[in-house]
Amino acid sequence: MPGSTNGSTRTMGALTVGGLVVVTAYTVALGSNGWLWFGWVVLGLLTLALVVTQS
Where do transmembrane segments lie in this chain (predicted)? Predict the structure, then answer.
């Protein structure tokens, strides 16, 4: 059904948003870490790929 998402897509989306919150909090508290941001970008791209393939 167009416009609907399954459980795995919602879970990946939640992990991506949660990861952004964690990486941002880490950056504010302890300073930037390029590897954390790189990991978050990879997670975001995987989530985007999952969303595209599901629709």
Answer: 12-29, 35-53
Report the alpha-carbon distance of residue 29 to residue 15 in Å, rounded: 21
Structure tokens at 19: 């990861």
Can you tell me which residue has the tokens 């978050």? 40
Three-state SS for 55?
A: coil
Token couple for 26: 């880490």
8-22: b (≥16 Cβ within 10 Å) or e: ebeebbeebeebeee
